[in-house]
Amino acid sequence: MNEPTAETRKPRVAVVFGGRSSEHGISCVTAGSVLKAIDPDVYDVVPIGIATDGRWVLESGDPERLRIESADRLPAVDGSRAAITLAQEADATGLVVTEPSQPPRTLGEVDVVFPVLHGPWGEDGTIQGMFEMAGVRYVGAGVLASAVSMDKAYMKVVLQAAGLATMPSITVTARSWARDAAGIRERSAALGYPLFVKPARGGSSIGISKAHDASELDEAIEEALRHDPRVLVEVAAEGAREVECGVLQALDGTPETSLPAELRVGGDHEFYDFAAKYLPGESTEIDIPANLPGDVAERLRDLAAQAFEAVGCEGLARVDFFVMPDHSLVVNEINTMPGFTPTSMYPQMWAASGVDYPALVDRLIQLALARGTGLR
After folding, report:
1. pLDDT confidence bin for 3, thresholds 50/70/90
2. 204 is known to lie in a ligand binding site
3. Residues pairing with 199 in the sheet
4. Are the CB atoms for 132 and 141 separated by under 8 Å?
5. Does the annotation flag 197 for ligand binding?
6. Residue 102 belongs to what domain range?
7. Which of 144, 189, 345, 366 is most buried, by the most CB atoms less than 10 A from its CB?
8. Domain total for the chain?
9. Catalytic residue, candidates 146, 209, 344, 353
10. φ, ψ for residue 266 (rounded to 5)?
11. Which of 221, 206, 338 is nearest to 276 (CA)?
């Protein structure tokens, strides 16, 4: 039997997940959804897990193993599985599997990587730089856009330079907090309480606290610093509505926008925290499309596309807004690798906009296959 050639074989997609950040478990859940959605008749899929210690392994492709059970029992990459590496050759980059007492075996050439990594070392430009150097195509934003969007403090600088409104804030580092806590308390008070305190490069609402007054500020900063040595202290958008918009590139590179969606958090959740985002049975309600005046919705979608292009994003992004009581729009953040879990907003918005989950995943893979690496 003849071996398949590069022209006849199915494109090989490496789904990379897990990672070293605090969002390891959520990345695994996202990977389960993506693995389930990729059509095996069209693509040859290789699941690659990155353990919390940084070890790359050939993981199970069973989506059920990556299902979320509770906040205390998130799935994790099994670091004891066979090690896997990207091996660059003269004209391609392949996958090599290494097992104890066994000779290395090659899985073949990688056509595209789908990195469903959240947080540092995955969503911040680090792994994107590795893929660029290895000459491997990959889904999503490049190095600079990933790094800028991951760091909420620098994201604000870029968005403000593009004329987009953001909430007032200050940046606190572990060094500045140790050196001048009193000054930081004073600058925070000048912003006006209540304040949100969050890791500058975090996600999934991990490490975020709401400081209602000065008595809660120190604890909130200490909690955020446990997750990131850079922290954002930001004015709370009191009375605002939280509305999100998905951005997805067309094959010609044009950013297209989804119907906006509004999050309404009830019950015991004062804000959209981890439990409200990911755990079933929580009291979060989602309106798709968001109940907004037509002109406001159109303006929001236009600003989402502007934010996407301001940071130089590629592939996909979710842009989160505060819709203020006077219908002015403030960008909360841009997420270059939004979650793909069953309850995630991004796929829900695109499904409501006529692009179902499998089609969405396929579009992203096709976009990655169509673009090269390096400067573009």
Report:
1. very low
2. yes
3. 231
4. no
5. yes
6. 12-138
7. 345
8. 3
9. 344
10. -120, -160
11. 206
Q: Helices 345-352 and 357-370, interaxial angle, to 10°?
A: 100
pLDDT tens for 122-174 read: 999 999 999 998 889 999 999 999 999 999 999 999 999 999 999 999 999 99
Residue of 22, 23, 59, 169 marked active site: 23
Is 71 labelled as part of a ligand binding site? no
For residues 278 and 300, state if they share a domain.
yes
Task: Tell me whether residue 237 is annotated as binding.
Answer: yes
Cα angle for residues 375, 309, 316 (degrees, 5° grid): 85
Residue 169 appears among annotated catalytic residues: no
Place of tokens 């091996």: 87
Which two structure tokens, joined as six digits, stand for 316? 């996909």
Least confident of 21-30, 174-183, 212-221, 225-234: 21-30
Domain annotation covers residue 213: yes
333 labelled binding-site residue: yes
149 touches 164 (CB < 8 A): no
> 365: which 2 tokens?
């893979």
The per-residue pLDDT for range 308-335, each reduced to its tens digit, is 999 999 999 999 999 999 999 999 999 9
Of 169, 204, 209, 258, which residue is the catalytic one? 204
- Classify burial at 315, counting beta carbons within 10 Å of its beta carbon; exposed 0-12, middle 13-18, buried 19 or more: buried
CB 248 within 8 A of CB 355: yes
- Quick one: 224 and 246 in the same domain? no
Active site residue 204: yes
23 catalytic per annotation: yes
Tell me the residue length of the chain.
376
